[in-house]
Amino acid sequence: MAAFNVVDDVSLRAIVAAANRASSPVIIQASVKTAKSIGVGLLTAMFDAAVSDSRVPVALHLDHCPDRRVIEDVVAAGWSSVLFDASNRDLETAIRESREVAELAHAHGIGVESEIENIVGVEDGVGSDVIAHAYSAQQVVEAAQASGIDLIAPQLGTAHGVYHGRPKLLPERAREFRALSDKPIVLHGGTGLTTQEFQAFIEAGVSKINISTELKMTYMKSALASLRRCEQTQEWDPPTLFNEIGGAVETMAVGFFEIFGSAGRA
Ligand code: 13P
To answer: Any binding-site annotation on 189?
Structure first.
């Protein structure tokens, strides 16, 4: 299933529209940066309004969050799931804290994605460009069982952001996880992969694929084109800008639903 990091109401509504257009389920996610800049209360209200007449299932997820206070806020607000990012902790601390987060979230019916080995790249200010913690698949699965989390986000050779060379992708590692555990596997760093690369990961058993940078680039390039037109025509109409950005983001998302095979499946 596709999971898109939205940045505001324009991108949020565009993803909901795309999911309905493609009849695909979708996960809307927000970085801690976005959750803090909009505010958890307003973001929750925006989401509730945007999905009120949706014909397809839409979940609201908190992406990479090492800060347990923000997790407590979104759990209280009734989001669908959170990614507790413990990849900056040592293994023992990561397991203990992941268990505490899972107990809190599960008490409210909320799912927990877990990252304990760091996925390379910085996502909205969270993460690192160097591998700090790397474990065997067996160790990651044992940690997931010990902490009781629901989804595993392992290192699969991808990175957040734009790739400057071709990454050494590890679909065979996703397959190894599937053989060791029933817990769904999450692929981070989706921007820049080819259709064949996505399909190799999906065939290997990946369940959730995260897209952030592609949405930001689509959003900003569309805004730039729209503003250039305003400059030429000297007509400065904000709703036209919002509609053009929303249309571009919607088209981008429909493309991913088709590649991932979730179109028509809601
Ligand atoms: P990209 O920014 O590479 O699309 O990665 C998104 C992601 O994994 C968000 O957690």
So the answer is: yes
- Beta partners for residue 110, in sequence order: none
At 201-254, the pLDDT tens digits run 999 999 999 999 999 999 999 999 999 999 999 999 999 999 999 999 999 999
- Would you say the CB of residue 161 lies under 6 angstroms from ligand 1? yes
Candidate list 48, 63, 90, 182, residue with the active-site label: 63
Query: What tokens were used for 15?
Result: 């993803």
Any ligand 1 atom below 6 A from CB of 211:
yes
- Annotated active-site residue 63? The verdict is yes
The model's confidence at residue 119, banded by pLDDT at 50, 70 and 90, is: confident
Summarised one tens digit per residue, pLDDT across range 187-198 is: 999 999 999 999
- Please determine, for residue 177, whether its predicted confidence score (pLDDT) is greater than 80: yes
Residue 154 lies in a domain: yes
User: What's the whole-model pTM score?
Assistant: 0.96
- The CATH number of residue 67's host domain is 3.20.20.70
Instruction: Dump pLDDT digits (tens) for 85-108.
Output: 999 999 999 999 999 999 999 999
Is 231 contained in some domain? no
Q: Are the C-beta atoms of residues 153 and 112 closer than 8 Å to each other?
A: no
Q: Are 1 and 113 in contact (CB under 8 A)?
A: no
Cβ–ligand 1 distance for 113 under 6 Å, the answer no
Question: Is 174 within a domain?
Answer: yes
CA distance 117 to 85: 9
> In this structure, are residues 182 and 150 in contact, taking their beta carbons and an 8 Å threshold?
no
Domain count, the chain: 1
Q: Is 208 within the bounds of a domain?
A: yes
Question: What is the span of the domain harbouring residue 143?
Answer: 2-214+249-260
